[in-house]
Design a protein that fits this description.
single chain; alpha/beta; Signal recognition particle alu RNA binding heterodimer, srp9/1; 2 domains; 4-stranded mixed beta sheet; globular; VOC_core; Glyoxalase; Glyas_Fos-R_dOase_dom
Length: 157
């Protein structure tokens, strides 16, 4: 019997977030993003060595920071260059729930030129999330024109 190169249900790419307080982050993601906890491997001190959540049709892995092993959190680094993109059914409700639960708004929710309604926030653990609901399918030509129009508006502002 052969084993698949990736576990059942996983996509080829899965985000793995290093967090100060992974257990609290898992609870935050459950509350805000309706994440399901798939599994968690606790450490003796109460931390999380490895956790897996499912948000929509995608998995997210998390673990507590372990600087000795070069696994550091955004707070330990003073920020993060990585951003997560999450599509949800109702961006306005999900975004508001995240803010109410302690996230910080970085960009308010608004209609984007590329056909999504989206906003960006920083979760309480230092990770950046753009939350969106796709509203409009665009052809490559429409997208290019809207991008050009958007850039022109930015230069005029």
């Amino acid at each position: 019997m052969s084993v698949s190169a990736k576990p059942k249900g996983f996509h080829s790419l899965t985000a793995y977030l290093i967090i100060d307080g992974a257990a609290k982050a898992m609870a935050f993601y459950q509350h805000v993003f309706a994440a399901e906890i798939v599994m968690q491997m606790p450490l003796p001190d109460g931390g999380i060595a490895h956790g897996e959540l499912k948000i929509g049709d995608s998995y997210l892995m998390v673990a507590d920071a372990c600087p000795d092993e070069h696994f550091v959190s955004p707070h330990q680094l003073g920020g993060t260059p990585v951003s997560m993109m999450l599509y949800v059914e109702d961006v306005d409700t999900t975004f508001a729930r995240a803010i109410d639960a302690g996230a910080k708004e970085l960009r308010p929710v608004h209609d984007q030129f590329y056909g999504d309604r989206a906003g960006t926030l920083e979760d309480p653990f230092g990770h950046i999330w753009t939350i969106a609901t796709h509203q409009e399918d665009l052809s490559p030509e429409q997208l290019q024109q809207r991008m050009a129009d958007f850039m022109s508006e930015q230069q005029d502002a």
